[in-house]
């Protein structure tokens, strides 16, 4: 119920104001996050909560299955604002195990508009079919595909003209790929970090 949500907000606000009277004044004064987080819309994976960060410490863009589409103006606008206006130096692409979007991308029945959105994951599934087949359960194959989707996302963010311009101007920005475990609450580094000098767009 909406009233329950509003009541929870009032309690939360009062508690923070009691513990730190200047808390909201600081947040209202300036947005100065350290991280730009591109994550999944799944309600179980809120960026600041799983990363142990306070509001104001992470700028967030989320979509179904954290897919990076090169024509997604929403994501690109957020990335540009993060880089050019906020001065972000750490970009994180974060997926999670047990992702419903990844699961949908591996199924043969229709999911409406989601099927168009998830096409890049299906392409990854086809490209890595031999590797995925080495895993002996559907869950393990989907979790591996979720990792591959993050790694591909890091590469695609690095290819954007936004990042290419930033690196050409010697901005020290790194892009990291993380995966979150719903079963244990842990973030894992997929060791696919890209930064200045490590990536040059081909073609």
Describe the structure.
With 203 residues, this protein is an alpha/beta fold. It is 47% helix and 14% strand. The protein is built from 10 helices and 5 strands, in the order H-H-E-H-E-H-E-H-H-H-H-H-H-E-E. The protein has helices at 2-19, 23-29, 47-50, 73-85, 100-105, 114-117, 119-127, 129-132, 138-159, 161-168; strands at residues 35-40, 58-63, 90-96, 174-180, 187-189. It has a 5-stranded mixed sheet with strand order 2-1-3-4-5. The protein is globular and about 55 Å long. The mean pLDDT is 93.
Largest sheet: 5 strands, mixed
Q: How many domains is the backbone divided into? A: 2
Identify the CATH architecture of the largest domain: 3-Layer(aba) Sandwich
Q: How far do the termini sit from each other? A: 53 Å
Strand order of the largest sheet: 2-1-3-4-5
**Strand-pairing-aware structural class:** alpha/beta
- Looking at the structure, the CATH topology of the largest domain is Beta-carbonic Anhydrase, Chain A
- Strand residues, percent: 5-15%
Q: How helix-rich are the residues, as a percent range?
A: 40-55%
Oligomer: single chain
Which CATH top level class of the largest domain fits? Alpha Beta
Radius of gyration: 19 Å
Annotation, overall tally of beta strands: 5
Give the uncertain stretches in residue-range form. none
List the helices and strands and how they pair.
Blueprint: H1 2-19, H2 23-29, E1 35-40, H3 47-50, E2 58-63, H4 73-85, E3 90-96, H5 100-105, H6 114-117, H7 119-127, H8 129-132, H9 138-159, H10 161-168, E4 174-180, E5 187-189
Parallel strand pairs: 1-2, 1-3, 3-4
Antiparallel strand pairs: 4-5
Helix pairs in contact: 7-9
């Amino acid at each position: 119920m909406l009233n329950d949500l509003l009541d929870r907000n009032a309690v939360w606000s009062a508690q923070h104001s009691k513990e730190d009277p200047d808390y909201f004044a600081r947040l209202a004064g300036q947005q100065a996050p350290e991280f730009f987080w591109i994550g999944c819309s799944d309600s179980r994976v809120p960026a600041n909560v799983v990363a142990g960060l306070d509001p104001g410490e992470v700028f967030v863009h989320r979509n179904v299955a954290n897919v990076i589409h090169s024509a997604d103006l929403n994501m690109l606008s957020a990335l540009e604002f993060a880089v050019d206006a906020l001065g972000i130096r750490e970009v994180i692409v974060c997926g999670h195990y047990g992702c419903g979007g990844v699961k949908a991308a591996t199924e043969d029945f229709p999911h409406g508009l989601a099927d168009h959105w998830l096409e890049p994951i299906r392409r990854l599934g086809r490209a890595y079919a031999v590797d995925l087949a080495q895993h002996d359960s559907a869950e393990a194959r989907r979790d591996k595909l979720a990792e591959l989707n993050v790694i591909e996302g890091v590469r695609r963010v690095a290819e954007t003209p936004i990042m290419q311009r930033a690196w050409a101007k010697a901005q020290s920005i790194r892009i990291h790929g993380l995966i979150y475990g719903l079963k244990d609450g842990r973030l894992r580094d997929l060791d696919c970090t890209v930064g200045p000098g490590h990536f040059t767009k081909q073609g």
